[in-house]
Amino acid sequence: AVTRYLADASRLPGVVRVAGPTGVLVHGRVVDTAAARRFTGPGGAYAEVVTAGPYDSGAVQRVVRALRADRPDPRVMVGGFAASLADTEDAVTGRLPWVLGAVALCMAVFLFLFTGSVVVPLKALAMSVLSLAATLGFLVWVFQDGHLRGVLGDFTVDGRVEISTPILAAVIVFVLTVDYEVFLLSRVQEEYRASGDMRAAVAHGLRRTGSLLTSAALVLSVLMAMMAASRVGVTKLFGVGVAFALVLDAVVIRAVLVPAVMKLAGRANWWAPPVLARAHARFGAER
To answer: 118, 269, 110: which is closest to 174 by C-alpha?
Structure first.
C-alpha cells in the first residue's frame, strides 16, 4: 500500500520526484534505490516529495490535499511548510463563517441602537457585503489572473491568492465603511426628524458629509496605493485591496447606492417591530 501510495504521489501534477523507503520515484517509476535505507528507522519511515513550485503556490497546495486525501493509513502524516500553510488556511476558513456572523450581528445591534431601525442595519450590511465582494473579485482578477502588471509592477501569479492578507484588508475596510455609514446616517436622521421629508434628509446628509467622506477615503486610498509599489507580494496585495475598496465605497456605494436605496425606501428606513421599538426607546443611543 505504501509503495503504491508513493508511486501515485510521484505522478501528481507539480511533483518532480518522491524519495522514500522504496527509492526515488519519478512519474511512478523507481529510478534509484541507493538512498532508500536512510528513509527508514526503528520508529517508522518517511518520504520526501519534491515539487516544482514554491510551497505557497496553488499547485503545491493541491499536491498536499491530494496526498492527505489518498493516505493508505490514518497513521500516515503529511508535514512540511506546504502542509503547515494548508492547515493554517483550513483553520482560518473553518472559523470564518462564525466570525463573519458575529461581526454582522454586532454591527446590526450597534446600528439598531443608533437608529432604532431594522431596515438600516440590513441595508448597511448588504452594502458592505457588496463592497467587499467587489474588492475580493478585483483582487482575484489582478493577483490570481495576473492583470494590471503594467500598472502595479511585476508580481508572482500562481493561480491563487494568499488568504490571510485579503481577510485583514476586508476587516479594515469593513470597519471604515461602517464608520462612514454612521457619519452619513447621523446627518440623514437628524434632518429627517426635523423635516419629516426623506428625500430632503438624504440630500442634506449627502451634502453635509459627502465631501468629507470622499476626501478622507481618497487620502487614505492614496496612502494605501503607495504600498502597491512594494516588491513584497502580500504588501502589494494589501495596499491595492484597501485602496480599491475605499475608492469604490466612497465614490459608488456611499455616494450613489446608499442615498438611492434610502430614497426608495422612504419612511420604511426607520421601521422596527413594536417590541424592538420599545427596546430602542429604553436602551437606544439617545439615552
So the answer is: 110
C-alpha cell of residue 7 = 508511486
Q: 133: which 3 cell numbers?
A: 465582494
Class of domain 95-283: mainly alpha
Helix (H, G, I), strand (E, B) or coil at 23: strand
The backbone torsions φ and ψ at residue 31, rounded to the nearest 5 degrees and listed phi first, read -110, -15
Q: What is the pLDDT of residue 49?
A: 95
Q: What global pTM score does this model have?
A: 0.78
Bridge partners, residue 30, by sequence: 25
Q: How far apart are CA 269 and CA 287, in angstroms?
A: 21
CATH 1.20.1640.10 spans which residues of the chain? 95-283
Q: What mean pLDDT comes out for the span 217-238? A: 88
- C-alpha 152, offset from chain centre: 20
Rounded CA gap, 181 and 82, in Å?
A: 41
Cell numbers for 145: 489572473
Write out pLDDT tens, residues 194-208. 888 888 999 988 888
Burial grade of 48 (CB within 10 A; 0-12, 13-18, 19 or more): exposed
As a whole number of angstroms, the distance between CA 196 and CA 281 comes to 19
The C-alpha atoms of residue 77 and residue 145 are separated, in whole angstroms, by 33
Q: What's the one-letter identity of residue 147?
A: H
Q: Which cell numbers in the block locate residue 217?
A: 477615503
3-state secondary structure of 210: helix
C-alpha cell at 256: 450613489
Q: With bands split at pLDDT 50, 70 and 90, how would you rate the model's confidence at 151?
A: confident
Amino acid 158 reads D
Q: pLDDT tens-digit profile of 97-129?
A: 898 899 889 999 999 998 899 999 999 999 988
